[in-house]
Amino acid sequence: MKPLFLYNTASRSIEQFFSVKEKQAGMYCCGPTVYNYAHIGNLRTYIFEDVLKRVLTLNGYKVKHVLNITDVGHLTSDADSGDDKMEKGALREGKTVWQIAEHFTAKFRENAKDLNILEADVWPKATDHIKHMIEMVTILENRGFTYKTSDGIYFDTVKFPSYCDFARLEPESLRAGERVDMGEKRAPTDFALWKFSPKDQKRQMEWDSPWGVGFPGWHIECSAMSLAYLDLPLDIHCGGTDHIRVHHTNEIAQTEAATGKKFANFWMHGEFLNMGNVKMSKSGGTFITIDTVKNEGINPLAYRMFCFTAHYRSPLTFTMDGLKASAVSLGNMRKAVPPESAGTVDVSKVATLMEPFYQHVNEDLNMPRAVAALWDLLKDTSIESQVRRACAAAADDILGLDLLAAPLETKQLVTSGDGPAITFDSPVPVPDALKNVLVAKIQARRTARKEKNFKLSDEIRNALTAQNIIMKDMPDGSTECQIPSSVCANCDAVVAALS
User: Fold this and answer.
1) DSSP H or E stretch at residue 379
2) SS3 label, residue 120
3) What Å distances lie between residue 145 and 176, 194, 248, 261, CA to CA?
4) Average pLDDT of 331-336?
5) Which of 185, 313, 363, 415 is most buried, taking the most CB atoms under 10 A from its CB?
6) Would the pTM of this model clear 0.70, i.e. be above it?
7) Is residue 94 very low, low, confident or very high in pLDDT (cuts 50, 70, 90)?
8) For 119-278, where are the alpha helices, taking DSSP H only?
9) ω before 233 within 30° of 0 (cis)?
10) 3-state secondary structure of 255
């Protein structure tokens, strides 16, 4: 197998991966702030991190994967102002902070399971590591990197000369008012390590500290928790691309200032999932959850497949039609896997055939090319069926798509070629003969409606209804056909009746 190459945000280049300890890899991933449901944009990052973990394992590494749970301290503004997201979420839900933290943590883990994301080895909660955070802030204070304001203890970024290096920031462009509200900060890039509780209100989450009652800053949490479970330097630190400019830059500054050591050798970031031209986000109200996907009757693994249509470092635009197309693609891939049969498999032949797939995943997790390589294998009928099945099983160790499971019961997307999409919603595959008849009928009905020939339009609908085929005209102009399995089982008779 060829060496593993990964894109390192720190160097802005693809580098060969080497771990600090032989065949052991420590990986820290910024986890969810559990004040609301994780949306599928958040989950795209965790899917990329899951693939990374699987590829590291493929390359012989024993991975120690740490994924934190932020249940305190994440404010609504990067400027260290605004409400604590957890307190705000508790108010929204009419529950305590502790209750919503437990609820949304459980929901996140359920989403991860739905998506076949492997369990992290350690799931540290911020509220369980307050002691570690206070100790780290104390070290920074003793080393002269902090100052006190009326609302907290802040990190003095001027004291850390390389602060701007990681995110390629230009200090002269960081004028007060452009990036943050300065308040009592000495510099716009300074950030809170410990925040004092407001004097006019009682917080649900607050702790005693050497500086007064309060709560930790968001950034100090990840530094303290990563150091509690992994050695420095970390082999890999992961997160979303939106973490580069502030959160990860701050993590580097405070960790290296406190320890005098390099924080991480590799930094890896997943790109945004967009809806139209807008980044999917909870704050903007533009987000879809895995429950939304499930309520549409779509297997969540179709979303995992959808994520593989783009490289993790490329923005990806979400549409429901795109997701449905991925569901069809996943169903077709499962159908292409030959059934299990007796006989031995030539392991060396499997290894040889899998070389292109492994080469693509080792080239900075190039999943679109890896999926294409697997398709080529599955469609090559000159390869023995059991060898193709073994290749699918090997690939699925990386893909996590349950390729050896039964084909998905999904909506099958068909483009009519003239007008909006037509979707067949059936518990079994719809035969081509019936598809062709239905497409013709639906197009004829669309033409009749356009020409205001409502009598003909109604006749077509009634003919379909008589065969237990239900049409639904969707708001986007597409048409859904709901087809029971009895129709597909009696396809010839139905086609004859409709022709």
Assistant:
1) helix 367-379
2) coil
3) 21, 13, 18, 15
4) 90
5) 185
6) yes
7) confident
8) 130-142, 218-229, 249-259
9) yes
10) helix
